[in-house]
Amino acid sequence: MDDKLSIRVNVADRYYPLKVETENEERIRKAARLINEKVLQYKQRYVDKDTQDFLAMAALQYVIRLIEIEESEEDTGLEEGLVELTEKVNLCLSKK
């Protein structure tokens, strides 16, 4: 059974036909909406620029945020590993 859904997504006043998994439709539409909101913010702030510039700045901003989240998760994983290792060392020391 094919769970693909045909949708059209508007990004920066251009429509893109996509075939997506049904469970991903809402996520994709939300992503397009967030991009459009960010592009609109840049359009209002910088009137003499091209839409391509606004898309590039929106992409840059979102990727920076994604990197920050990934780095935060890596730090959390490292921290959890250190806590676990410390507990194991303490357990070994207490047995002696």
Give an account of the 3D structure.
The longest helix has 45 residues, at 51-95. The mean pLDDT is 88. This protein has helices at 25-45, 51-95, and strands at residues 4-11, 14-21. The protein has a two-stranded antiparallel sheet with strand order 1-2. With 96 residues, the protein is of the alpha+beta class. The chain has one domain (4-95).
Topology diagram in text:
Elements: E1 4-11, E2 14-21, H1 25-45, H2 51-95
Antiparallel strand pairs: 1-2
Helix pairs in contact: 1-2
Residue stretches low in confidence (pLDDT < 50, at least 5 long) are none
Question: Main beta sheet: strand number and arrangement?
Answer: 2 strands, antiparallel
Radius of gyration: 22 Å
Q: What is the share of helical residues?
A: 55-70%
The largest beta-sheet arranges its strands as 1-2
Distance from first to last alpha carbon: 61 Å
Q: What's the overall geometry?
A: elongated
Name the structural class.
alpha+beta
Average of per-residue pLDDT values: 88
Strand content: 15-25%
Helix segment count? Answer: 2
Number of domains: 1
The arrangement of helices and strands along the chain is EEHH
Number of strands: 2
